[in-house]
């Protein structure tokens, strides 16, 4: 259970960084109104909340047993979050490929 919550915390941080990059280069839009408002106020606030949430997941891992029903929920969220991070990665890679092509053309 701890590994699953650690993985979820890592995905949250990765999502935060990839989203910040995507927002900075205007290749994605933040769908979550709270996170969009935080990013609009300052990207540091956006990333700070991501760090805090990841820290809370790690702390939560101390108190949740392996038999908890939270495990099934965390597994489902991890799968969805993994796909979101892969999608963000594809967008960012496409940005770099496009930029590189423009440099050499």
Structural class: mainly alpha
| SSE sequence, one letter per element | HHHH
Q: Assign an overall shape.
A: elongated
Reported for the largest beta sheet, the result is:
none
Question: For the residues shown, what is the average pLDDT?
Answer: 88
Query: How far apart lie the N and C ends?
Result: 50 Å
- Low-confidence runs (pLDDT<50, min 5 residues)? none
Helix content range: over 70%
In terms of quaternary structure, the protein is single chain
User: Which percent range describes the beta-strand content?
Assistant: under 5%
Rg over CA atoms: 16 Å
Number of extended strands: 0
Number of helices: 4
Provide a brief overview of the structure:
Helices cover 84% and strands 0% of the residues. With 105 residues, it is mostly helical.
Describe this protein's structure.
There is one protein chain. The chain is mostly helical. 84% of the residues lie in helices and 0% in strands. The chain contains four helices and no strands. It has helices spanning 2-24, 33-41, 43-63, 70-104. Helix 1 runs antiparallel to helix 3 (43-63), helix 1 runs parallel beside helix 4 and helix 2 crosses helix 3. The longest helix has 35 residues, at 70-104. The model has no long low-confidence stretch (mean pLDDT 88).
